[in-house]
Amino acid sequence: MVRAATESPRLDPTPIFELFRGNHATELLTAAVAHLGLFDHLARGPLSPGALGAAMGLADRPLTVLVTALRAFGLLDLDANGRLDLSELARGHLVPGGEFDVSGYIGLAADSPGVLEMVERLRTNRPAGDADDEPGAAFIYREGIESAMEREASARHLTLALAGRAKNVAPVLAGRLSLAKAHRLLDIGGGTGIYSIAWLQRHPALRAIVWDRPEVLKVAHEMAESHGVADRLECLAGDMFHDPVPEGVDVILLSNILHDWDVAECRALIGRCASALPPGGQLLIHDVFLNDTLDGPLPIALYSAALFRLTEGRAYSAAEYRGWLIEAGLEPGEITPTLVHCGVLPGVKPGTTRQTL
Ligand SMILES: C[S@@+](CC[C@H](N)C(=O)[O-])C[C@H]1O[C@@H](n2cnc3c(N)ncnc32)[C@H](O)[C@@H]1O
Predict the structure, then answer these.
(1) pLDDT tens across 300-351, in order?
(2) From ligand 1's centre to the CA of 140, what distance in Å?
(3) Cβ–ligand 1 contact at 356 (below 6 Å)
(4) Do 210 and 240 contact (CB within 8 A), yes or no?
(5) How confident is the model at residue 355 (pLDDT cuts 50, 70, 90)?
(6) Is the Cβ atom of 191 under 6 angstroms away from ligand 1?
(7) Active site amino acids
(8) Domain boundaries, position 319
(9) CA distance linking residue 173 with residue 168, whole number of Å
(10) Of 72, 103, 124, which residue sits at a domain end?
(11) Looking at residue 353, what is its pLDDT?
């Protein structure tokens, strides 16, 4: 029987994802209190983000993840000069030695494995799993890192784990954003390919390419077969940072890709996509979005910590994505929300040779 990828779930699973990511609140708060002395540093007065990062020995990416979360928790504020300051709550209860200080209580979790792991990630700015004696980083492949996506068992396990979220979200994305006028979709880092499959099932004339690592594509190929679209879905192995971007596509999807990478890789990848598109073509960024002020929303700030721990990325704001689209010569559009905190932000290449949406 052919499986359908076009039916949305009856209930929204978002609360389950929020519960699952709750541990990162404990980890970041305890790291800040018991390992990094963040509240002590700021008790002496407001600091620029750079000065606070230097005081704690943190690079930009871990600092952004930590500060975004603490602002979402209501523990840090930004003053009129762009310096970080303690909120009233933090000043009253998290400055060591204060009358109502609770930092000793928070310190009860200081040696828990999750907190120690987060502190290690914050200090080294390296994802879990990529050290010499470890099994490889999840979800990311580039030259110079050990990647779990290069081994059959771990690639299959991680790809199918992500499919749990994707099979809920893909029907919603395909239902809210029609590709009726598109000819050929390129799904970069498409994993199981379920997002492409949902669109292929909606639009019988559409063709798609899932561009991913060879071991991941074994799963994508099985999914294309079981969903009856194998004749229109090409599984193409490659490295999205180095191999030529496949030509002849008029829509490119980056679903949950950019959040796995640091700023330089995001800008490079968006630039490569923009160059490959014809005038009128579209780049679709399907992802979560932090507030443009990088102070929440809380569930995205916690998801950002999860991404930070596992990959070389973090969550970004719509303003950050829009800036990179403009830099690449694309015109950003409006975000259409999908499910599980995700939304799709289009960037259109100016020109009118082909209308895709
Ligand atoms: C977080 S998953 C996203 C999967 C899917 N797009 C989704 O939204 O669920 C990232 C995907 O990018 C792929 N990937 C990572 N680095 C890559 C590279 N250098 N070239 C091609 N694919 C890569 C991974 O194998 C994985 O399937």
Answers:
(1) 999 999 999 999 999 999 999 999 999 999 999 999 999 999 999 999 999 9
(2) 6
(3) no
(4) no
(5) low
(6) yes
(7) 259
(8) 167-295+311-348
(9) 10
(10) 124
(11) 61
